[in-house]
Amino acid sequence: MNDEQSSESPAPPPPPFTPPADVAAARGEADGATAATAAAAAAAVATNDRRTFLKKVGAVAAGAVAVLVPLGAGLATFFNPLRKRGGGGAADFIKVTTFEALKDDGLPHRFPVLADKHNVWMTEKNVAVGSVYLKRTGDRVVAWNTVCPHLGCQVDVVAGGSFKCPCHNSMFGKDGSLTPGSVSPRGMDELEVDLVALKTGEVRVRYQNFVASVAEKRPL
Amino acid sequence: MKTVLHWLNQRTHLVSFCRALLYERIPGGARWRYAWGSVVLFAFVVQLITGFFLWTNYSPSTQTAYESVYYIQNEMAGGWLLRGLHHYTAQIFVVLVALHILQMIIDGAYRAPREINFWLALVILQLSVFLSVTGWLLPWDQRGFFGSKIPSNLIQLAPVVGPYLRTVLIGGSEYGTHHTLTRFFAFHVGLLPWLMMGAFMVRGYMNRRLGRHYNESPRTDLPAATFWPDQFLRNAVACLAVLAFVLFLVVRPKLFGSDKGAGWGVELTAPADPSTNFSAARPESPFLWLFQLLKKFPGETEVIGAYVVPGLGFTVLLLMPFIGRWKLGRAFNLAFTLGIVIAIAVLTTQALREDSHNAEYQAAAKRGVAEGRRVVELAHFNGGIPPAGAISLLQNDPFTQGPLLFKQHCASCHRFGGEDGIGGRDDKDAPSAADLKGFAGREWLSGLLDPAQISGPHYFGGTKFKDGEMAKYVEEDVKEFKPAQKEELKKVIAALSAEAGLKAQRTVDAGDATTIAQGRKLISDADTMTCLECHKFNGEGKTKAPDLTGYGSMEWLTGMIGNPAHKRFYGGKNDRMPPFAEKGLLKRQEIELLAHWLRGEWDPDDFRVATTKPTTTQAAK
Predict the structure, then answer these.
(1) Does the predicted model carry a pTM greater than 0.90?
(2) Which end of chain B is more exposed for a tag (fewer CB within 10 A), N or C?
(3) What is the DSSP code string of A77-105?
């Protein structure tokens, strides 16, 4: 091999594999034989074909199991989050604030929601898991999730008490209803207020998150 | 050396292989326009190299991600450069791939037998989108967190598999858990780069097998050249130019930006806080046009903006090799591509212009940057970041939390410098309590004791006290003060203000020790000032009005906020201020944060104990 010479084309590929002559002979392709030898040869070919077929099946099966077991284990963990679909029932009421602390001005005010937060392997007690808007008019209290039903940004309150999302400009009325022309598929997600507790002066809200980007209000 | 190479080549053919690559023949000579492909590959290699080294310093856990990136950015030599290169090359890569595809469309380089090459380029473009979205989240700061959150919600809209795909990719039904970060990180470093590398390699192999596109119609007037060194030189220079541009982007904010406080490279915004409102969530620049597009599809039609329109566009791109078989088809391809380019340019410009006029966006973006810088300050004060994370530094910081708490709990009645604490102003509602900016300072007290101001909106005007005893005293008695009495009043103000021990007045108070001592005497002396007829001071006097002992000090202020209806303060005369501690409206820590903020204390040397006991010598250091 002369390494000094610079080649202008790639090295030629190796020649294709050809079985040695004796194998070809074993396959009964050799010189003329008697009918018996030919029949024996044919039978030999048939056995060889079956053996080869079995070998192939065995190879595929062994290789598949070898690869699929780790892959399967991996995919099982990967799809694990899907197992927990349909979480245990409706969420509980969580105390957000007191009736007294809520200003009676018919305007929405933002409050954090404190609860136990489950984050895969970790549980934090009494931390902010989200926030709500509370609006008090006289004795009535309305609660909304602050998350925009469009794509998950947090909605702002604008002057006058209506809502606007700063991400894609969806607008909602003072009652949380969708302003026509907004990109959000539905209005602000209203949350249930515990009316029994309200009478005793506590504002308890059934805090939930809902699926974004769809018209129906579906809890996550 | 030659013998070693010969030995190696006999066994591997590696040397011949490299020679074949390096000395590939280019008919018509090397040209600059052939450098496009190498520039894309270069950007990818930059990402691999910078990505690996970032990985050696990065901790992909929600508890530590921000902190590890903080360390890279602020403490490691060259860290800001490494991170800046990775950040901007990512965006440049998307643009370069798009330009390369554009070049292929213009040249008709998608025609047989190159269809697969063209499609692989589209695959590379798509992979770069996924790499971008997964990459934004990794620093776990506000901008990245919310920047990736939106696309994760978009996945939901994909037909049939959307919701399942979303759940699996973000590791649950809620975005932002530990698994969101681990899964995004796994895709970002463990799968997508390999797929992209595979795509590059197949394209490389195909190019060698089919011959390069530009060899199909080379210039015949010029002699052929070899890749090395002619084309390699041009490629290298082109790559250098791209690198220079990326470096310019990295240093631009510090060297050429209008923000004087800008640091080097890509500054981190505040640590991610899912419960807060970050109104400045945006994708990075190459994707702003998609963001703008989504604004135009209301309600149920959102899926059209997110999937149908881009999907149709992408499908046409995929079909271009077939459409381009006819001359008319080629013309269509060019026109369609031109349309896409114009649409993207228009949408991007619209998005940028809307944001520049959007006050809330600007304010939120500024706050994000300011909080990120505050973390750096607080970490230095603290000698590092505590185990509870960078976010705990901010949550215990009066400078950050004070304005937010004020806006939430106080601004419905009080004002702070005429505003609501965070710079907003709602002029519809008249204030129904005092303006607290500079509370207990000499200027504030002078205003309180000014007959022209005490019943004004700045002090008692919105409260019932405007008709009370104090207002009467100031408006009738103080108004008639003779010059000598006015001098005495100044001393009283100095003494009263000194009770607070405000950081802003420390030096002044220290220098006025005599005046303050005299003022204290005057307050206590029933013959001069009549304060003790209603107020208490140092154990003497009545309880018809708030205690003046330690007025405006931490202890006094937290007591006042906690329970203004306590007999030490307004007692039964309290107007409307809720007892925040009594009723559990504010936690102890929140009241302290508010009080520190009102007193202007938020850096380590602000928190020094000021004595309220009178001293004849220098006041406390």
Answers:
(1) no
(2) N
(3) HHTHHHHT-S-SSSPPEEEEEETTTS-SS
